[in-house]
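Customer escalation, tier 2.

The customer says the design service returned an amino acid string that "doesn't look like it belongs to this structure." They asked us to rerun it and document both sides in this ticket. The original structure tokens are below, unchanged.
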């Protein structure tokens, strides 16, 4: 990496340019196959080192913490499925859960677990949630995407995720620990 004309290692870039402390960030997930309110392994191929530092919480806590962090202005990194019906590659650039897939009233821990356990929902992409808007009483999240397909919609480089999509298809999220003080208190 090059910063100000100097060649830096990734670690030097993190320390000298980005100035982020990785220990200040926490990852949450909500899975049924591991106990809630404990640290758990995120069982996906990308977690090849079998890290067990993820905080496993019930889905309602997961969603409340996610919504609260975004509303407070924290940026949130999500591991999401970007390959199922409801995710539009072209216009209009949104991600929804089609009503024929699962009605909103039936999106719960069991619906998530079924899709995760069968491999229908995977963590095929990491994205950056940078904002939100409410329409007709439901939240839509502005999500920055690095894939080239994100440039083929009505808001180039971004998607809007409906809150139901987040609830069903976002497998984990990472945010600064200051956004999760109430959740973290349950783990100490």
């Amino acid at each position: 990496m090059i910063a100000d004309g100097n060649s830096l290692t990734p670690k030097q870039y993190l320390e000298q340019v980005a100035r982020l402390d990785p220990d200040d960030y926490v990852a949450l997930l909500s899975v049924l196959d591991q106990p809630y309110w404990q640290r758990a392994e995120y069982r996906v191929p990308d977690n090849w080192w079998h890290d067990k530092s993820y905080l496993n919480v019930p889905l309602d806590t997961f969603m409340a913490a996610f919504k609260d962090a975004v509303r407070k202005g924290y940026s949130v990194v999500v591991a999401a499925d970007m390959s199922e019906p409801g995710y539009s590659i072209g216009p209009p650039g949104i991600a929804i859960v089609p009503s024929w897939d699962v009605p909103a009233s039936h999106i719960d821990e069991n619906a998530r677990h079924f899709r995760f356990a069968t491999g229908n929902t995977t963590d095929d992409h990491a994205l950056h949630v940078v904002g939100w808007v409410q329409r007709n009483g439901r939240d839509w999240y502005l999500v920055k995407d690095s894939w080239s397909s994100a440039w083929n919609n009505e808001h180039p480089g971004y998607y809007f995720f409906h809150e139901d999509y987040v609830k069903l298809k976002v497998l984990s999220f990472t945010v600064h620990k200051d956004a999760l003080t109430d959740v973290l208190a349950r783990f100490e």
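Tier 2 assessment: The sequence is consistent with the input. The chain is about 25% helix and 30% strand. Residues 46 and 140 are 27 Å apart (CA to CA). Sent an explanation to the customer and offered a walkthrough call.
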